[in-house]
């Protein structure tokens, strides 16, 4: 990794550690799915090797609400949530998972849908095995979910899977926040985005294979992008965050569940939902926010 990208990576990781977050990992199913995640230590008991461990006894924890931050496509969640973890950590305990095929999170399962991603996060949050701090003697910690872009699609499935959870160590799901996440996207939206990025199919844009494609993506996803980015930085970003598991990420894009797959997909969520949208979003234009609200 080049110096500039290494420096940025260190800065963003420092934002997480300064917010009191520490990095852990957990095997969440019997199909070889391992999620790496950041969390406040009060939410779990840690074994000597630093991995999340099951425990029969409860650790004393602060009974603050919990917020789960689910990232979108692109670099590690430390890059995507660095600005938010500090302010949020003053009021909430945080869990920031790295979704499957991003970073070091992986699976042996064949599934590639956003619903599968949600099932993996749900397994991390429920049962008290990986995050025993979510289960208290007097009841369950309230968990709010925030998803941005692709993470919002995952948050939708997570909200449904945790809705009305009672007993069995399950977390009580509170509010849902969707940030620039087009829950109503379909094939026509992908075609429009591909045309905007001057590529044949949307996977060429969202999972760039070379520096030219990455520059196109950055021009669309960054408001007021830098006028000049040295080729060495583009090359390092591509190698570190986009080339790794690229084929699997393409499968994730192709595996997104749509209303054609599930007619009930966009029936109203039972939780209170807040929609946040960037006025200048070129990936998901702001008018899509009103369609999501409907």
TrEMBL record:
Residues making up the signal peptide according to the UniProt record: none
Taxonomic superkingdom: Eukaryota
Cited Pfam families: Abhydrolase_6 (PF12697)
Boundaries of every AB hydrolase-1 domain copy: 67-198
PANTHER family for the chain: OS01G0168800 PROTEIN (PTHR43139:SF14), SI:DKEY-122A22.2 (PTHR43139)
Protein name: AB hydrolase-1 domain-containing protein
């Amino acid at each position: 990794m080049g110096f500039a990208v290494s420096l940025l990576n260190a800065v963003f990781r420092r934002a997480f550690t300064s917010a009191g977050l520490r990095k852990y990992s957990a095997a969440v199913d019997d199909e070889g799915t391992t999620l790496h995640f950041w969390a406040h230590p009060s939410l779990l008991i840690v074994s000597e090797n630093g991995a999340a461990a099951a425990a029969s006894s409860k650790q004393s924890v602060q009974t603050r609400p919990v917020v789960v931050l689910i990232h979108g496509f692109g670099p590690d969640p430390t890059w995507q949530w660095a600005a938010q973890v500090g302010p949020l950590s003053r009021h909430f305990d945080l869990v920031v998972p790295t979704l499957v095929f991003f970073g070091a999170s992986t699976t042996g399962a064949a599934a590639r849908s956003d619903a599968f991603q949600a099932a993996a996060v749900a397994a991390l949050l429920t049962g008290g095995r990986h995050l025993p701090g979510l289960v208290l003697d007097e009841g369950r910690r309230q968990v709010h979910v925030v998803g941005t872009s692709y993470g919002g699609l995952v948050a939708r499935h997570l909200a449904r899977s945790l809705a009305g959870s009672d007993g069995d160590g399950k977390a009580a799901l509170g509010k849902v926040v969707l940030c620039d996440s087009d829950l109503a996207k379909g094939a026509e939206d992908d075609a429009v985005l591909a045309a905007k990025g001057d590529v044949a199919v949307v996977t060429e844009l969202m999972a760039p294979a070379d520096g030219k494609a990455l520059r196109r993506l950055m021009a669309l996803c960054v408001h007021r992008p830098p006028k000049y980015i040295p080729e060495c930085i583009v090359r390092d970003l591509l190698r570190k965050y986009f080339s790794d598991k690229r084929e699997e990420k393409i499968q994730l894009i192709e595996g997104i569940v749509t209303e054609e797959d599930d007619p009930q997909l966009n029936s109203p969520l039972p939780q209170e939902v807040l929609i946040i949208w960037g006025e200048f979003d070129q990936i998901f234009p702001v008018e899509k926010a009103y369609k999501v609200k409907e």
